[in-house]
Design a protein that fits this description.
This protein has one domain (28-340). Helices cover 81% and strands 0% of the residues. The radius of gyration is 21 Å and the shape is globular. The N and C termini lie far apart (47 Å). It is mainly alpha-helical. It has 13 helices and no strands.
């Protein structure tokens, strides 16, 4: 019985995610705006806006690569772009989300000949900096709304939680980098806490310990001293390019600044991005659409324009990556076959 319980938990969790996706696209969004009205809004797209959307989408795609180039010296742009499109596509399609993407990134980089320790360092740093950015955005949004005279109670709660988690995470990183002893002690303490939680969920212990934290410190300290500012810059540029796609989608589909200002759009996006990081469905499908639509409507956006913009934004930030991910997978297979030959 105990061995089968995690399987049932995964099935139930997957079933809940599927119900949420179906409910979002089959009930909630059509209740907000009839899909015929949404399609009528989409048909009004003009060529200048279409070109602007294409440009923003290309910018979003190419900014995937630089964080990996900074975190993994020697990785070239095309290889980094191939890696990110493949891993992101897999994280969107398969249950497990980010874990699947991380595993695929590790496998691809290993097949390209990068040492395991350098790969582990790069995966950890890129993931950490992405989470730091996600947690900081609600805090930044609160400051922007306050400066423009706006207010959003739900975002204040998210910003409070995000700021707390961000402070703890940054403090832990600083402690790990401060000394080997602190890194080991903190790693052992974290492992005990994680094992206690996993034991309550009837799962096996974690595979890491204080030695893992100490090894991460030795591997990362020199690189972070030289490149932490570059990693921070390219991470924020990459994630903010996603917001640019949303903002252009709103303006192109009849949601003007008089209804939703750019500060309010940023606040809604920050909240939706934080919700999407919770692994309920692959790629946050259903969760992001519902959260983003609700926030934009609360700020005053018209129903059909908001739903059309959200659906277009999600299409442009997911479908091109899925297609490029398929191409990247085929390229990786050919490269691996060539290496074997």
């Amino acid at each position: 019985m105990g061995a089968g319980r995690p399987t049932w938990q995964r099935v139930m969790f997957g079933g809940f995610g599927l119900v949420l996706v179906v409910a979002t696209f089959g009930y909630f969004l059509p209740k907000i705006a009839d899909y015929r009205d949404v399609w009528a809004v989409l048909e009004q797209l003009t060529w200048p806006w279409i070109l602007a959307l294409i440009g923003a989408t290309i910018l979003n795609i190419v900014t995937f690569a630089p964080p990996w180039q900074v975190a993994l010296p020697g990785l070239r742009f095309i290889s980094a772009l191939t890696l990110t499109q493949l891993s992101t596509a897999l994280s969107i399609v398969f249950p497990g989300g980010a874990a699947v993407g991380i595993a695929s990134s590790f496998g691809v980089l290993r097949s390209w000949g990068f040492p395991s320790r350098e790969i582990g360092r790069a995966v950890t740093l890129v993931s950490l900096w992405n989470q730091f950015a996600n947690l900081s955005y609600p805090v930044i949004a609160i400051f922007l709304l306050s400066a423009s005279g706006g207010n959003f109670a739900v975002l204040q709660t998210a910003a409070f939680i995000g700021a707390g988690v961000l402070c703890v995470a940054v403090a832990m990183l600083v402690a790990v980098l401060a000394s080997d002893e602190l890194a080991t002690n903190l790693g052992d303490l974290s492992a005990r806490g994680a094992n206690w939680i996993k034991d309550k969920l009837r799962r096996g212990p974690v595979a890491w310990s204080g030695e893992s934290f100490e090894r991460f410190r030795r591997d990362s300290l020199d690189l972070l001293r030289r490149r932490w500012h570059l990693l921070t810059l390219v991470t924020y540029v990459g994630t903010l390019s996603v917001f640019l796609v949303l903002l252009i989608s709103l303006r192109a589909l009849g949601v003007p600044a008089s209804e939703v200002s750019w500060e309010e759009a940023f606040a809604a996006w920050a909240l939706a991005r934080l919700l999407g990081s919770i692994p309920i469905t692959p790629g946050g499908v259903g969760v992001v659409e519902l959260g983003l639509t609700g926030a934009l409507l609360a700020f005053g956006g018209n129903n059909a324009g908001v739903v059309a913009a959200v659906l277009l934004y999600r299409f442009l930030t997911m479908v091109p990556t899925l297609l490029l991910g398929l191409i990247a997978a085929a390229s990786a297979r050919r490269r691996e076959a060539h290496a074997r030959a």
